[in-house]
Design a protein that fits this description.
By secondary structure, the chain is α/β, with parallel strands linked by helices. The chain contains twelve helices and 15 strands. α11 runs antiparallel to α12.
Length: about 350
């Protein structure tokens, strides 16, 4: 076929696609009506993750990559979900932050995004029904856990209902394309992830902590001798000149984000459960709790401790385990853990995301 014929074929395919997309949107409206009648939540993360996995398996021809097919369907899901309700998603702002990117990656462009200045404000917004869901950072592959999120999880009644892994690329950007840099603005995590690069290239520059990477970009924009460590999207968004790319000390750098809501999600085919607990000050107390999982051959995916608020030298433990809280073996293990700890809190079970981003 010549070019004109090929373009004609593409036009025919596009016509069929538009028709099918509208047919899908109509079915989504019917699903929304059923959910409203039965009192179910519009957003079903476990259903969406299972759907995306199924779409990947259907992509047998492979002309579209896994990432491409997920990105396309993420927007289809977002647009169809809007026919039921436009979700309001809270995130750590301002716009163009890594948290904003993670939210867009999970929900798509058709939902409404609300930036908040601090992590506690994000938790409060969902608790007060000012937002339907939230995205918060929980840990970075280089810098470790985000303390503000860990502390908020101890007190909250919100439920962890999903996770997102976002590859992190840091660029060094400034309002001026060249010239001496006296101050570097960014979030403490970003500064930490680039500390060796900064020591080598800008050893005399003052490192100024900002509330977020986007906040750092905004401050650098108004400082003729300032620069910011930001993601490429934020550099474009704030009109900064990129001087250096990929300045993170570890190139395979990613941040894990949690999705928060008010409702526990049912099992999918591959789930993770996050719990936290406190143990008494006695020899073998933590080991006894961890053995409950090993005896049942339940995989511990992560364990991290945080100081207990108001109790010097006492700690709470955050643990990720493989499986869903409703599965009999894990339900049995959690009951045993509750008996062997001062207190136990199940933060949520949710579809496990691909960490190999």
């Amino acid at each position: 076929m010549n070019l004109t014929q090929l373009r004609s074929k593409i036009d025919e395919v596009d016509e069929r696609l538009v028709h099918l997309l509208n047919e899908r949107a109509a079915l989504a409206e019917e699903v929304g009506a059923v959910k409203k009648t039965s009192g179910q939540s519009v957003f079903a993360p476990e259903r969406e993750e299972m759907l995306l996995n199924r779409i990947e398996r259907l992509n047998k021809e492979g002309r579209l990559s896994r990432e491409a097919i997920r990105a396309i369907y993420r927007e289809i899901l977002s647009a169809c979900r809007q026919r039921q309700k436009q979700l309001r998603v809270a995130y750590l702002g301002p716009e163009a932050s890594n948290c904003h990117q993670a939210a867009l990656q999970r929900f798509g462009a058709s939902d409404h995004y609300a930036p908040f200045r601090t992590i506690p404000e994000i938790f409060l917004a969902v608790s007060r029904d000012e937002a339907d869901a939230a995205i918060v950072p929980i840990e970075n592959s280089t810098e470790g856990g985000v303390n503000a999120t860990h502390d908020a999880l101890v007190e909250t009644d919100l439920v962890v209902c999903g996770e997102i892994f976002l590859p992190i690329e840091h660029v060094f950007a400034s309002a001026e394309p060249e010239g001496k840099v006296k101050r570097v603005y960014s979030h403490p995590q970003a500064l930490g992830q680039c500390r060796h690069w900064l020591a080598e290239h800008y050893p005399e520059a003052e490192l100024v902590e900002a509330g977020s990477t986007s906040d750092g970009a905004s401050r650098a924009k108004g400082d003729p001798h300032g620069a910011a460590i930001v993601n490429p999207y934020a550099a474009r968004f704030y009109g900064l000149h990129v001087r250096h790319r990929n300045i993170q000390d570890r190139l395979r750098n990613s941040t894990r984000f949690l999705m928060l809501g008010k409702h526990h999600v049912p099992p999918s085919k591959l789930d993770k459960t996050t719990i936290l607990f406190a143990v008494s000050h006695k020899i073998g107390a933590l080991s006894a709790v961890l053995s409950i999982f090993s005896e049942r051959k339940i995989n511990l995916m992560k364990i991290e401790s945080r100081p207990a608020a108001g109790k010097p030298w006492e700690y709470v433990f955050f643990v990720d385990v493989h499986g869903h809280r409703e599965q009999p073996i894990l339900r049995e293990a959690l009951a045993a853990v509750r008996e062997d700890t001062l207190w136990l809190k199940v933060l949520g079970s949710y579809p496990q995301a691909n960490a190999n981003v």
